[in-house]
Amino acid sequence: MARVAIVTDSTSYIPPDLAKKLAISVVPLQVQWNGQTYAEADPQAVEVLQALRRGELATTSRPSPERFAALYEKLAASGAEEIVSIHISSSMSGTSEAARLGAANCAIPVHVIDSRTVGMAMGFGVISAALAADDGMSGEDVVQVARRRISATNIFFSVAKLENLRRSGRISKGASLLATALAIKPILTVEDGHVVAQERVRTQAGAIKRLEEMAREATKNRAVDVAVHHLGAPELALQFAENLKAVLSGVGQVTISEVGAVVGTHVGPGAIAVVIAPRI
Predict the structure, then answer these.
(1) Would you say residue 50 lies in a domain?
(2) Contact criterion met (CB below 8 Å) for 150 and 225
(3) In whole angstroms, what is the distance from residue 24 CA to residue 118 CA?
(4) Which residue among 131, 146, 175, 254 is buried most deeply as judged by most CB within 10 Å?
(5) Measured over all CA atoms, what is the biggest interatomic distance in the chain, rounded to whole angstroms?
(6) Exposed/middle/buried for 224, CB within 10 Å: 0-12, 13-18, 19+?
(7) How far apart are CA 71 and CA 26, in angstroms?
(8) CA dist 37 to 44, 59, 62, 74, Å?
């Protein structure tokens, strides 16, 4: 085990095999649907995803501080000397606060990072942190590596409708009504932890084209890692990824992943996102 252990939460959507390879511990958020509570990483949460793909709604909650405390103590007992714990924006979830509470009595230092973002926009920073830890960096240096990668990363996404974001309080009611009334497909991003509307286009095809353009602008001919997220739109995500490979220079494989139930309940079916993470 590396001297510095890396922890994140399930909304980073790092491919499970990669998380396992890099020894990244993933704490699941909770989702409530149909009178039941599921851990996002629980295979039974597939039922929730199926409901979300149909347009149903669910509610979400953070992991408990006790869940974090137990994991941190387990990592310390396994030989970790420090822990870097990287989590979804505190404007979207109380997960980072739960992590801080869980770290309060830990036997070793725990550095909790509020990523101010979500998905692989956070996940690429977590991956960089794990690689830095494997290289033997100190906890403070690992924190700086993660922060630099996250701050350099962009996420742009489009949703089929704003109703889910409005109901969850992630975007204003006025913006939702405007988009519905005018049949507008909004282009959104995350700025300082908040979902904000950047542009509005008329059609899904127009939204996809604009996402491609924004991805190219964010790349700036640099070497980047790219991820595509979606909910209930695998064919669209695959075609979008192929288009990105054609228009972005210096890009190899594009990671494609469906968001889990926690983010899925906020963005709704038909959502598509692109993450551009410069290699720094």
Answers:
(1) no
(2) no
(3) 17
(4) 146
(5) 57
(6) buried
(7) 10
(8) 10, 9, 12, 25
Query: How many Cβ atoms are within 10 Å of 117's Cβ, its own excluded?
Result: 27
Angle, CA 107 vertex, CA 101 and CA 111 arms, to 5°: 55
- Domain interval for residue 176: 154-278
- Best CA proximity match to 11, nearest among 232, 229, 251, 247: 229
Q: Which residue(s) pair with 33 in the sheet?
A: 36
Domain count, the chain: 2
Strands 254-258 and 4-9: unpaired
Q: Would you state the pLDDT for residue 109?
A: 98
Q: 3-state DSSP call for residue 255?
A: strand
The CATH number given to whatever domain includes residue 207 is 3.30.1180.10
The DSSP symbol for 203 reads: S
Question: pLDDT tens for residues 36-47?
Answer: 898 887 777 778
The model's pLDDT over 237-277, given as tens digits with 9 standing for 90+, comes to 999 999 999 888 778 779 999 998 888 888 888 899 999 99
pTM of structure:
0.91
Show the tokens assigned to 42.
């629980």
* Mean pLDDT value across the chain: 89
- Joined together, the tokens standing for residue 146 give 């993660």
Q: Which of 151, 173, 201 is the last residue of a domain?
A: 151
- Express each pLDDT in 194-240 by its tens digit: 888 888 888 888 999 999 999 999 998 889 999 999 998 999 999 99
Look at residue 157 in the predicted model and tell me its pLDDT.
93
- More confidently predicted of 250 and 179: 250
Residue that is written with structure tokens 């709704």 in the block: 268
Tell me the two tokens of residue 249.
């220079």
DSSP 42: S
